[in-house]
Amino acid sequence: MKRKRFIKSFGFGIAGFFALGFEACKKIPKSIVNSVVIDSNTLSVPSKIVVDDSMVIDGYVNKLSFAPGESVSIYINSKIYNEAKIGIYDSNGNLQSTVTGSFSPQTVGPQAYMNGYQYKNPILFAIPEDFKSGLYFISKKIPFIVRNPKKSAMIVAVLSTNTDNAYNAAGGLSSYTVPTFSPILSFQRPYNLVYFSEKFWPWAETIGYDIDYITDADLDDYDNFSYAKVLIIPGHNEYWTRKGRVNFDQFIDSGRNALILSGNTMWWQVRYSNDGSQMICHKGLADPEKDPGLRTFNWHEKQLNYPIEKSIGMTFDLGGYGGGTDEGWDGFKIINQNSPLLKNTGLKNGDILSCWSSEYDGAPVKYVANNPHPVLDNKYNFHKIEMIGYDYGFRVVKTVATFIVLQRTATSGVIVNTASTNWCSKNGMGGKDGDKIKTITLNALNILLNGENAFTPLNV
């Protein structure tokens, strides 16, 4: 009997046993006894290959960050029992590889929001050694990151996996469900990337720079990004571990730079479970952690002794909510037209850079006589800090969102902070002034990579 008929005839538990026995000469590890492994192609994908992603309802992977040569355990919930080939795509939707396996409908386990979906019979995909670092999607639905083990790119971009997990209500609860939220959330659930960074990832592949990609959890290991010149934080990166923040500060203090294309950044402290499969954030309520410095509160809480402004120059408390009823313009009013960041945009003082934002960050500001605009109040005695534009928001009271350039000390790196959750979304890079926003972002990258002056020249 042909192997294919055997698999179809006897079901998936027996099929998995048969596949393992058939492939024994290839020394398949014991760790995949419950997996069906049929084939994994490399980047040389035949032009007429037939890929069927239509039967995939949802799925997830065993973790979110891999190196070439590692195996991804893919858990798929299928519409039907079927042997099929599914695609592995880059962030622009281009087919990069395939994996073939036997797929079946799955049952969700108990308390799936916390314990994971507990799907059975994963398919293994061995990441080819020649896969470049990037953001990939299985069947255009299931995201994962491939890191660069050579650690050679000058730019490292961070996928905000903690924030994605916090917003994910798969299994019933998230960090935002009401009246009940879950302080423990599994990463092993189906989820989509939160829309805040959706326009960044495809664009980043077109700008001509090699970029290494990591996740939030990878920030806990300084070696994962210490070699870069620029760290990019796109979208909405709200949930940080203490180790991640310490490593970020070390990176900046060492003279390297950051491009923060995010708003409401570093708002909550989180922890991970011992195996890294869960994120813990009690949001200040009855956290059992004995170490007060690791309790999952807002970072602005005094007991954590780690103000957000000291790291990135501003905070959500001062920036507030945008896009609602306020006195702003759903974008930044330009007040520093000579900033090198605005090169080739045509923006002048008083112009509005359109970027509707749900949330903003803001630096301390004050008002002075004969100046209609807020000015920065350098309360933390940074070596240099400069505002490019601002918007008004609201958070109980009127707030001021600030697009700034910051150098904390004379020897530290430079931080360009756009302060908006939507800079990389359809409202920013994909919006009315998307071309200008992309130009500003690329200007910032060029300046930070080449060690050029990111501040307005004094003689202008």
Can you characterise this structure?
The protein is an alpha+beta fold and 460 residues long. The protein has two domains: 104 residues, Immunoglobulin-like, CATH 2.60.40; 300 residues, Rossmann fold. It is 16% helix and 28% strand.
Annotate the secondary structure layout.
Elements: H1 3-22, E1 39-40, E2 56-61, E3 65-66, E4 71-78, E5 82-90, E6 95-103, H2 112-115, E7 123-126, E8 134-138, E9 142-146, E10 155-159, H3 161-167, E11 184-186, H4 200-204, E12 211-215, E13 230-235, E14 239-240, H5 242-253, E15 257-262, E16 268-269, E17 271-272, E18 278-280, H6 308-312, H7 316-319, E19 320-321, E20 331-334, E21 352-354, E22 359-362, E23 365-366, E24 375-376, E25 384-395, E26 397-407, E27 414-417, H8 434-450
Parallel strand pairs: 3-9, 10-12, 10-13, 13-15, 14-16, 15-27
Antiparallel strand pairs: 1-6, 2-4, 4-7, 5-6, 5-8, 8-9, 11-18, 17-18, 19-22, 20-21, 20-25, 23-24, 25-26, 26-27
Largest sheet: 9 strands, mixed
Number of helices: 8
Q: What is the residue-averaged pLDDT? A: 89
Strand content: 25-35%
Radius of gyration using CA atoms only: 24 Å
Helix content: 10-25%
Shape, per Cα inertia axes: globular
CATH class value of the largest domain = Alpha Beta
What structural class should be given to the helix and strand makeup?
alpha+beta
CATH superfamily of the largest domain: Class I glutamine amidotransferase (GATase) domain
The CATH topology label of the largest domain is Rossmann fold
What is the number of beta strands?
27
The N- and C-terminal alpha carbons lie at a distance of 81 Å
Count of discrete domains:
2
Q: What is the annotated CATH architecture of the largest domain? A: 3-Layer(aba) Sandwich
Poorly predicted runs are 1-47
Spatial order of strands in the largest sheet: 12-10-13-15-27-26-25-20-21
